[in-house]
Amino acid sequence: MRYSPAAGIGWAISRCAGLGKKYGLEWWILVAGAIIILAIVSMALFAGSIAPFSPHDQDTGPQLAPPGGEHLMGTDNLQRDVWSRIVHGSRTILRVAVLAAIISSVLGITLGLISGFSGGFFDRVLSLVMDSVYSFPGLILAIAFAAMLGPGVINITLSVAVIYIPTYFRLVRGQTLSIKEELYVEAAKAIGASGSTILWQYIFPNVIATTVVVFSLNVADAIMIEAALTYLGLGLPPSIVDWGMDLSMGKKFLPSGQWWLITFPGAMISLLAVGFTMLGEGLAEILNPRLLER
């Protein structure tokens, strides 16, 4: 039987509708968030084909031209096309936010597993350190690290990643402390399973599911933190195309009526953050066991 694109699309729509009936509003929230993310990710992947100009081209048209005609979102004070900078800037903010969330999740989950499973002095010291980091407001801590490390993609990624490590640590450590007392873990110890085997084959699979929701929400928060750091001049150098940089450069033109210089970068930052938030909230509700009992 030959594959038919129409049949595949029909199956996907019917499957999506079926899940919508099962989970209700939570499913459609997840779908809406996924569509937003997919659209912006596609924009980042095909930026070279979508953007009509180079984001650094300073001869695309009149200076501070309003949206319309050849310039969908107008031009800035350096005659650069705003839409082209929006398209290429999506690559930067996605790279920083997602990579920061990956780094923090890997470190936080690993430390949480080891700390909760081993206990003792190591657990007490590590918990104290993580609680100390967690007590600081996220943006203030990110500003401090960004100021120490200096501008750059890697530096701002590390600055953002640090503030989320305690979130994963606290979540995973608490679950590890509970799971390691379960009967199947005791049975594994009784048959001579090593500590590493118990940790990674019995405990880890049971804590990883809940971190998916935290990951989505942390990416949303990391987007806002990255944009805020760049807006304050502590994030990326001006040579790198970024929505936060465009927001910072365009604010001084708002009183004179050039609203598009901050409206479009600000709207894209908010839209991408909302997309990941909706994805995380939808997953949180769908993965809630009480929801399945309805």
Summarize the structure.
The chain is mainly α. It has helices spanning 5-23, 25-45, 47-50, 82-118, 120-135, 138-149, 153-162, 165-179, 183-190, 195-231, 243-250, 260-286, 289-292.
General description of the model:
This protein has 294 residues and is an all-alpha fold. The chain has a single domain (11-292), classed as MetI-like fold (Orthogonal Bundle). 74% of the residues lie in helices and 0% in strands. The chain has 13 helices and no strands. It has helices at residues 5-23, 25-45, 47-50, 82-118, 120-135, 138-149, 153-162, 165-179, 183-190, 195-231, 243-250, 260-286, 289-292. Helix 4 (82-118) runs antiparallel to helix 10 (195-231) and helix 10 (195-231) packs parallel to helix 11. The longest helix has 37 residues, at 82-118. The protein is globular, with a radius of gyration of 23 Å. The protein starts with a helix and ends with a helix. 37% of the residues are buried. Mean pLDDT is 85; it is low at 290-294.
Please describe the topology of this protein.
Elements: H1 5-23, H2 25-45, H3 47-50, H4 82-118, H5 120-135, H6 138-149, H7 153-162, H8 165-179, H9 183-190, H10 195-231, H11 243-250, H12 260-286, H13 289-292
**CATH topology, anyone?**
MetI-like fold
Q: Per CATH, which architecture?
A: Orthogonal Bundle
Radius of gyration: 23 Å
CATH 4th-level superfamily: MetI-like
Helix content: over 70%
CATH class: Mainly Alpha
The share of residues in extended strands comes to under 5%
Order of helices and strands: HHHHHHHHHHHHH
